[in-house]
Amino acid sequence: MFRSLRLTLVLSMVVPLMIFSGVAIYVGLGAVERNLNDRLREDLELVARAVSGPLSQAMSDGDEIVLGESLKSIFRIGRVFGASVFDEDGQQIASLGVADSDVTRSDSAERAIASGKLDGAFRRVDGMSVFSQFTPLIAPDGRIQGLLQVTRKRSDFHELVASSRIWAVSIWSAVSLMVILVVVLGHYGAVGRHVSRLLELMERMAPGRWQIDGHPAGPRELRQVHEGLQDMGARMAAAENEIRESVERERELSEQLKYQEKVAMIGRVAGGVAHELGAPLNVIQGRANILGRGELADSDRRHLRDIEHQVERMTLIIQQLLDCFRHVPDSRRETDLAATVRELTARACDEPKCHGVEICTDIPDVNAGVLAEPTRLEMACLNLVRNACQAAQSRVIVSVIPLDGYWELRVDDDGPGIDDSLRERIFEPFFSTRAAGEGTGLGLAVVGSVIKEHGGRIEVGRSTDGGCRMSTFWPVYEKRVESTEAHHES
């Protein structure tokens, strides 16, 4: 209903409380005023009763001196504004101060004479509001022989009440302001600042920023709200991470499916090409061997060697193409990556592509177990070393390093390195940074294909020698964990 908790608190609690207290004060002051009026009337009655006896005797005796002195004594007894004595016909006999000169038309005087009891009322005398008290004067024989009128100014009745009312209103106003101030400041100190902090935290909550820092503060209810927000933020963050991971898994599965479909299609094409070209190449190779047995001129023999070289090159391209896109049955088993790399680096030193290049190894003497198809694993690692040897000037460093659930096979060379713009393309089939005829452009494509088959990844960077660094990451194979999971599944 209201825009702020503070305003709601003031309007719904403080204002009604102040209204109720103001009404209570008003009613209380009315009661005090009535009690004070009764007290003042009683005072006048006491004064009138005190002098009614002497006045009655003085009227019976006709003693004007005693009558005058008795009237004077009224002013000495209390705060009296005026006093008069009237006979039974309502005619004034004696008077002091401000009083009526004729009461023949006064209802209060008539009631007092008729009943023989005191009576009085507020009335105006000489333009001034006074309280007029009439007291019957009884003769010795019991007859009402006159009336005593004692008057007192109305202001005497109400000065104290008015003063009390002013003080009450002032105190009530001051207390109301103090209560509102205390409520406002108290609300801010005890509740408001904590609510504002919660609102700020809620405004900052957004995708990727669900976690709420800080400790709960304030009253118990607000601490519970803060804890509830923290719990909700944690659940939202967990749900967001789960959705992100699910989307990432679906994307990876989609990419893997597309890749497998692409590999299957290219594999079928490559198989067909290999089958169609294999027979003609074998014929060419056979005829070249036959011609080489005869007597030929040097120029003819040179041409024959060129034919044989190109046939071997075409055969190598077909074989690498088949290696890159051939569908291999899943015959993976636990394989020691460190032992595999150690063996192939020893063989690589004798290969023509690695002549003149020093191959250094940093391979730990541990079982670097990975789940892999040994032949495909060896082919990928060998292609990495061959590629580094072809790019290196003098040295290649091969390392096997454990890293966060992976075995990293790192191959560094001191060659010219690979441009950042080309690092994504070097794994494409038939792409090569070397001059035409110096490479098939399928070596790294084979590496990329094998690493994807085994759920790893490959990164290209710069080595400490300034050349290229190829890092392949193979998931660590933990036999005991898999055995336990297989036991649970069964």
From TrEMBL:
It catalyses: ATP + protein L-histidine = ADP + protein N-phospho-L-histidine. Signal peptide: none annotated. Residues 229-256 form a coiled coil. The chain crosses the membrane at residues 7-29, 166-188. Keywords: ATP-binding, Coiled coil, Kinase, Membrane, Nucleotide-binding, Phosphoprotein, Transferase, Transmembrane, Transmembrane helix, Two-component regulatory system. Pfam families: HATPase_c, HisKA. Its EC number is 2.7.13.3. SUPFAM superfamilies: ATPase domain of HSP90 chaperone/DNA topoisomerase II/histidine kinase, Homodimeric domain of signal transducing histidine kinase. GO terms for molecular function: ATP binding; phosphorelay sensor kinase activity. Residues 272-478 form the Histidine kinase domain. This is histidine kinase. The lineage of its organism: Bacteria, Pseudomonadati, Pseudomonadota, Gammaproteobacteria, Pseudomonadales.
